[in-house]
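Hey, can you fold this?
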Amino acid sequence: MKKIVVSGVSMLLLFTASIDVSAQSGYRRNNQPANKPAAGKDTTAKQPAGSNPATPNNNAKGIVNQPAVTPTTVSPANVSLKYDTANPGGFDSKPEVPLRNNSAVDHNQVKDRKPLEYEHLRMDDEVWSEYLWREIDAREKLNQSFMYPGKDDNGDDRRFFSILLNSIKNDSVTAFKADNDRFTTPMTVDQVLNMAAGAYDTVDVPDPVTGAVERTITKKPKFSPDSVYTFRIKEQLIFDKEASRLFTRIIGIAPIAKQVIGGKSQPRILFWIYYPDLRKSLSKVDVYNPKNSASRMTWEELFEYRVFSSYIIKTSANNPGDKYLNAIIKDPLFRLLEGENIKTRIFNYEQDLWQY
């Protein structure tokens, strides 16, 4: 009986020793140095992209090296460049021209339209004159045509700001810097487009399967076209004694964009355009009519017939400091009331010239 017990204990010890030996051999297999070449294999070490060959090897200490992965560093061999020419802002994108007539009626005569010449005003017949500065807010119901985002027959954007840009690009209309409203410093077409288009933006899109990266380069606009909803107008009112009537002539138009500067949205005048130079371009573009598509006026007719809503922000009368109303009157409600008082004063002046 004792012999059986002793033999059983010896067999148990032998079984425990064999398990320990196998565990130690497995530990060595799993923790052998990573840079130890296998038999019959290539012994050339391959350095990962972006790694430093002079980095000390810590395998001697039993630590497995892991190559540092930098998310922003991509191997040029796996990157394909793509230039997106379609500007998301829609300012300088190539228009999509329809290959067939988009209407049941032929509208080719629109391109031949010309504005009527202004009646000549002699300086000796000028009895009274005053300059006014107005602002058109396209968010008002009467001015919603200024922000219509549809396309015309030429494939161009029908927002009024896009019409101004197209007149500068295609009709050789000169834009002037916004330093002043006296049209002193002209701007080139590239300066105007760069002001609206913004800077280049790069987006990397990696393929999860192959690891190839497609790098898309496009222009990111500084502001959205919908943020240009304010337009400033400089006009002159003249009473001509020969015609015995009051003339209102628009001198210049300036778009105003809303840009975020220092975390605050601030208005910024982009450029000025001399309105007499712009009339020819405006006479070829129809205004969106929500009531009847067949009864449309041109943009030149809209300004000449005064079919827009505006408020006065500055006048040359009783203004020796040449200041805007917001610099004189802080309350916005009282500024609007002062603008209405200016309109009433001009109306009464014209009526008082007549005798009934």
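Oh, and this one too while you're at it.
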Amino acid sequence: MAVPLDLDQLQTFCAIADCGSFTEAARRVNKTQSAVSMQIKRLEERLGVSLFVRDGRSISVTTEGSELYARARRMLRINAEIIDLFSNEDLAGSIRIGVPDDYAVRLLPVILSQFQITNPKIMVDVMCMSSETLLQGMHSGKFDLIVFTQGTNDEYGEHFRTERMHWVGSETGEAYKQDPLPLACGPQTCCWRKSALDALTREAIDYRIAYTSSYATAISSAVGSDLAVGWLPESAMRPGLRTLGKKEGLPPLPDAQIAILRASHAYGGIYDALADHIVASLGNLDGYDPLFQGKLQQHLQAAE
């Protein structure tokens, strides 16, 4: 009978894969670097494969390591669920969460405040920035959980919401009539920017980047002032903006895909409580449900 894998070794393995550093992983799992190295050596001997490629200071997972990673995370999650099942402890502790400023920036504060009311012993520290920056922060250990836009080269997020993406312009403006079409958008790393530019290119619509910012509020202000046209998912619509589309000569955009990504330690207990609350709250704002606008308006009114 095969000897079961050591969950502690899998936790360490995932921590290294998350941050790409034995030194940082040792800090995260509260072990010495030599202990971490020994755990990985034993895990590699147990499986008969190399899990990491070491190139100077750079560390990356091998093909076998990548296959193990997703499965190891599932084992860690199941382990946390079993512990929670038989635990009588109150939920308490602190969570570092990152949320994107280009998605649900008005809804998430309300959702998080509701969570704080029902879970007063859980301290939630929130940082708001772009999805790409959030992913970098997760890699460096700044967050326990992040909500981010999928399509940003990360396969381990837990997708939980899809909603329509709209072209947007000033409520009374006519920037969409200009040729070339002036655009307000995020930096080149923004996956929504790439989708929008690809859609314009396919339709042979000439455009120019008139305004660039890493901050969603700045982009929305530029659009609201009729300096340019932009794009937003349905739940991020703001006063002073209106949706644009076929009538204005603009092509359809791919849907927005929203996900949660956890650090490898962030399963069970307080982490599941917060993740489940966010998924349930945002998941109920169904952009394809005729009642969506009413539900959305209730949340937006609560945010003001």
